Amino acid sequence: MVVRSVSQEKPKPPLSGIVYGEVAYWMALVGVIISIVGMGMYFTSETNYVNSKCLLSSLWAGKDAHTIWEECAENVPHGHWYLEKLNTGDGVAMLGIALSCLAAVIGVWLSFLTMLKEKERVLFVAMSFIVAAILTASALGIISLKH
Amino acid sequence: MTFSKLDMKHFGIKTIMSFAILLLLQGNALAAENNATMGMSAPVFFIVFLTICIAIGIVAVLAGVGGGVVFTPLMMGFTPVDSFIIRATGLFVAMAGALVAARPFLRSGLANIRMLYFAAVPYATFAVIGALLAGYVKETMGAVGEAYIRLGLGVLVIFIAMIFVFAGQRIEYPEVRQVDGFTRRVGLAMAYWEESLGRVVNYEVTRSWLGVLMFCGVGLTSGLFGLGAGWAMVPVFNLVMMAPLKVSAACSKVLIGIGDTAAVWPYIMGGGIFPLFAVPCMIGLMVGTIIGAKILLKVKAGFVRWLIIGIMLISGIRLIMKGLEIFGVM
Fold it and tell me: Which residue among B42, B104, B186 sits closest to A52, beta carbon to beta carbon?
């Protein structure tokens, strides 16, 4: 029989999981809030990185991302372009998006460190390290699409 | 008429209106040469997509699927927006929703952290490969690549709809008769407190080697097509590895947050995310998910399952038609 009651005491959830959950949640939430602030700036400011009219017409025309960047921002961004454009609404909004996307990266690293501290089995520590390394390589642009 | 029926009537009208807006957008796109922005300013565009995505979020929750799996085919089938941008945004919205939703599952211990990392290695690896493949197809194959992506996604979406129709049954507490040697050595089993039973549930899992193979495929699909993958992950955990249904659903939600993060960064670095498009879609799906979860407590939403099956079938057919159009077949 698979499902069996072994104890009436609530089992303690692994700390590594709780750490990941908290970090991912709060970072994603902060990222969402920053992106909303960025959009507010985008609508009220005249100086934005990507021209909104050009962007809208290009999206409706079905133009690809590369062409849209060339026509509406005058250059194709590479890597973390928003870090140099934090004085613009879309730069701030993109910072928020990036923060949300970094939430799992930071969360998994902290979860890995917690696993090490809690002396979890080596196999799972190694797995969390591999996942953290994949996410980091992806976020740093080491794994990237060439444009 | 009861309150809940009235609620559902209003909700149904809103959903149909949102779908109508999408159809209108698609129709108006034909006149885009005369009116390039379709008469929309940036704030109006923001509000329109926010509304559409709230409706998608509500419908998705009521139908028991993630918003990401509905968003991508619907947007690719019914808007003229470039598929690379839609897939990047689809991955982002699926990821953001999963990150916010994961917290209670990990705090309660319902999501098994060992199973998570065990599945995350193949899933994240192949999600990245899928994202890179998407970029490769776009770079080297041009319009033909776009057609293959649309055709592939169309077939996949119809397949997912068929899964909902014919294989909707899941097992709350699967019975593991024998744990294979590999799974026993890995040691994935854990225990959690089941509130509804008022006791600890100590469960086993099995066939984890088969699960790894399947997560490779699920990750590839998710990264390539920009879909959330809960529709595939829950059955792998529940029916292949025989984890309890609640544990499977919790692990799937957390895993989407991890795996899609790996896949979304190549899209971001490739310039696939535009805040004006991504932010309203993200907020809309999150708000829709919250509203949908509240409605779900009040109503029997069986018909919504058929609504979403219908939407997915229409989206799938539309995607195949678009793909064939590019090939010049239609």
Answer: B42
